[in-house]
Design brief:
By secondary structure, this protein is α/β, with parallel strands linked by helices. The protein is built from ten helices and ten strands. The protein has a single domain (33-342), classed as TIM Barrel, CATH 3.20.20.210. Bound molecules: zinc ion (ZN). Zinc ion binds at residues 10, 180, 211, 213, 312-313.
């Protein structure tokens, strides 16, 4: 990547309304069979073109081929029964009816590799693919088999590593793991969470990223954020460990959040995917606001290690809003690029 301050998104983008219900998480597909396969590929084409036209340098799939960033991956694994549901508390924040682990978990076949190969054909730009992290995966399941969050996380780490190696072979340039659970379960994260994440990335030669955030702009998350006080210092728990880890890129939430920006200093030496776009608001950022966020971060991360991005995924936003936010991200980034090249 020769571009200074390469832009990217955390991952998800809204789907076309003919493919899935807009502004809805876990929206059911509107097509089936071959029409669904073709529809997902068409959506992937559109999402790739929109990102490219709007100046996004590192292109993602926009999660156009998945219903949800965690559930869709788990659906493809053996050992999980989706007809047996239990209600559990997700990330200690909201109750959800989740599937049950009934047997040893196993990846019978690659999950996203065909989709990633298709994305690879659509663009010459670097591509990034996101997978759920082990700790976030176990947090969306009822475990009736291993009866141990740690044991199940290690099993998922092995499976994720198989998938990640296949994604690398399919031409993915950056593999990202989404671990919002790192902002919630500090003890487990320290005991085995970081270690299972590193296990998931073992043997990869492509760059690896971890995304830790305060979640989509849904009510449960907005209520949770309101309870966190005026300074959000959750990253203080994970960043020193990630700084010492084998992970290359740390993705964090910044714009409109109460994260003290100097916490970025804790991952000095790593690349930083900086959230400069608020995904919990439909207000489009101005280029000046984006530039401000980037400039502030540059006190704590070297310019050649900064990747301007979104705070989280944008799947629940109206489509025109999400696309306009992509344009704002690149416009703001261009301002800072110009400043850096003239200084
Ligand atoms: Zn996120």
């Amino acid at each position: 990547m020769n571009q200074i301050l390469p832009t990217s998104t955390v991952g998800s983008l809204p789907k076309p309304s003919w493919l899935a219900q807009p502004e809805t998480l876990w929206a059911p597909w509107k097509l089936e069979g071959d029409a669904l396969v073709e529809g997902k590929q068409d959506a992937l084409r559109i999402s790739t073109k929109e990102q490219s036209d709007r100046g996004i340098d590192i292109v993602s799939d926009g999660e156009q081929t998945r219903q949800h960033f965690v559930t869709t991956f788990i659906e493809h694994l053996d050992g999980v029964d989706f007809s047996r549901r239990e209600t559990v508390r997700i990330r200690d924040r909201y109750d959800a009816s989740v599937p049950t682990v009934v047997d040893s978990v196993r990846r019978a076949a690659p999950v996203f590799v065909d989709d990633a190969a298709f994305l690879r054909q659509q663009t010459d730009q670097p591509i990034k693919w996101a997978l759920p992290g082990p700790m976030t995966m176990i947090d969306t399941l009822y475990d009736g088999h291993y009866k141990s969050r740690e044991k199940l996380a290690w099993e998922f780490a092995t499976i994720l590593n198989q998938e990640a190696r296949d994604l690398e072979a399919a031409g993915v340039d950056i593999i990202q793991f989404d671990e919002p659970a790192f902002n919630v379960y500090f003890d487990e994260m320290k005991d085995w969470g970081i270690a299972t994440l590193e296990r998931a990335t073992e043997g990869l030669s492509v760059e690896t990223a971890v995304h830790i955030c305060y979640g989509y702009g849904i009510k449960a998350n907005i209520d949770w954020k309101a309870s966190l006080g005026s300074e959000w210092r959750q990253y203080e728990e994970s960043f020193p460990l990630l700084q010492q880890s084998t992970i290359d890129i740390i993705s964090l939430e910044c714009h409109n959040s109460h994260v003290p920006i100097d916490l970025i200093e804790l991952v000095r030496g790593k690349k930083v995917m900086l959230g400069a776009i608020d995904v919990a608001s439909e207000k489009i950022e101005t280029a000046a606001e984006v530039a401000d966020t980037i400039r502030n971060a540059l006190s704590y991360v070297d310019a050649d290690k900064l990747l301007p991005s979104t705070n989280c995924g944008m799947a629940p936003l109206p489509r025109d809003v999400a696309f306009a936010k992509l344009s704002a991200l690149s416009a703001g980034t261009r301002i800072v690029r110009d400043e850096l090249s003239s200084s």
